[in-house]
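Try this one yourself first.
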């Protein structure tokens, strides 16, 4: 899930697309392939400069997401 000041983006694979469309308010992105790549594309398109991560997830997932999202040298990533 990606939250901005004005939007909510939920990312899922095709297995959950119908359930997500029925239960999620906000934009639902059905992704074939790595979810982090789809999140990075939205971040880049929205020109988001500061990204935070929820620190309660598995450490390996958070580290992989941070590495994938390092698409711009000036990006600041923080776990919180």
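Now uncover the answer:
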């Amino acid at each position: 899930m990606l939250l901005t000041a004005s939007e909510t983006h939920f990312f899922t694979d095709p297995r959950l697309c119908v359930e997500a469309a029925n239960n999620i308010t906000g934009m639902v992105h059905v992704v074939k392939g790595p979810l982090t790549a789809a999140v990075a594309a939205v971040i880049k398109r929205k020109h988001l400069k500061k990204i935070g991560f929820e620190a309660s997830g598995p450490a390996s997932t958070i580290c992989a997401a941070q590495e994938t999202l390092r698409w711009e040298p000036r990006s600041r990533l923080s776990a919180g």
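Discussion: DSSP finds three helices and five strands in the chain. The mean pLDDT is 78.
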